[in-house]
Amino acid sequence: MATVLDGKGVSEKRLERLRETIDESGLDPRLATVLVGDDPASALYVRMKHQACERVHIGSINVTLPADATTSRVVETVRRLNEDPEISGILVQLPLPGGIDEEAVIAAVSPEKDVDGFHPCNLGRLFSGRPRFAPCTPAGIMTLLDEYGIDPAGRRAVVIGRSIDVGRPMAALLLNADATVTICHSRTADLSAVAREADILVAAVGRPRFVTADTVREGAVVIDVGTNRVDGKLVGDVDFEAVRERAGAITPVPGGVGPMTIATLMENTFAAAGRQACGPAP
Ligand SMILES: NC(=O)c1ccc[n+]([C@@H]2O[C@H](COP(=O)([O-])OP(=O)(O)OC[C@H]3O[C@@H](n4cnc5c(N)ncnc54)[C@H](OP(=O)(O)O)[C@@H]3O)[C@@H](O)[C@H]2O)c1
Fold it and tell me: What is the strand order of the sheet 89-92 is part of?
């Protein structure tokens, strides 16, 4: 039976530690969120981020713009936050409503304040092996592996999904940690056979219970990024009950990757404040 990787517990512990570090630092980190439109899920995520800020003594502000805001208005808002010395980190809640050029908005965020790690400059640094801010979900997964003493070096890692927010940066982080990495996607031939080679299998597909027991190698570490609503219940991309019989370690949904994402956002925001206090990064 697999060890359940307790993302919730680890994130609680890290948030406690972070609060103490912030209190002792003399710094005054502050996160600005930008919420465009009135999507209830996005509003909920933003509220959760502000709650986490409060917990660790990071100041936070939110700027709300209407769903029909133009790209230039959103970009202008982001630029104002870039120039505000009181703001350490900026998070634009994605997805943005249709009609807004998401790429232009992401590119407008100062790379120094890009605590989500989506700016092309930060993704480039990540892929060249010199990360500054890595996207919070994959970076949180790396922290979780580390907390459980799971070293990816020399292991075969398979990431299912190639999105810019999860799959691709996940692969880059695993590669930077010396894993041998394969990325699968919707055009991968015989995905199950590829996945079965994995010592570390990350599922970021967005399809409920996509990964079944026969897709998993005995003893593998299985990381479930998926958050899917099925009959009002949150389920992952992994068939948890069946896969836990075969895997060596597995993250639950909820309580696995999700809490690590928020903890990492807090850590990135504090890191941004630290860097800004020390002058411009090289
Ligand atoms: N817990 C968290 O903090 C957190 C954070 C972010 C995301 N998530 C969740 O993680 C999941 C993935 O998110 P995402 O943003 O990466 O999603 P996404 O942008 O929709 O990407 C999904 C990826 O899965 C691949 N895929 C879809 N169907 C497939 C199939 N039948 N076989 C193989 N590959 C397939 C797609 O391949 P193609 O590229 O070929 O289309 C794509 O690369 C979602 O459930 C999301 O809600 C959770």
Answer: 59-65, 30-36, 89-92
- Best probe residue, ligand 1, of 227, 229, 237, 257 (max atoms within 8 Å of C-beta): 227
How far is the centre of ligand 1, averaged over its atoms, from the C-alpha of 163 (Å)? 6
Tell me how far apart the alpha carbons of residues 45 and 257 are, in angstroms, rounded to a whole number. 15
- Residue-wise pLDDT for 218-268, tens only, equals 999 999 999 999 999 999 999 999 999 999 999 999 999 999 999 999 999
Amino acid at 251: T
Is residue 116 annotated as a catalytic residue, yes or no? yes
| Domain hosting residue 237, numbered range | 136-258
Number of domains forming the structure of the chain: 2
* Model pTM score: 0.97
Cα 174 to middle of ligand 1, angstroms = 18
- CATH code for the domain of 240: 3.40.50.720
Domain holding 74: CATH number?
A: 3.40.50.10860
Give yes or no: 51 in active site. no
- State in Å: Cα 161 to ligand 1 middle: 5
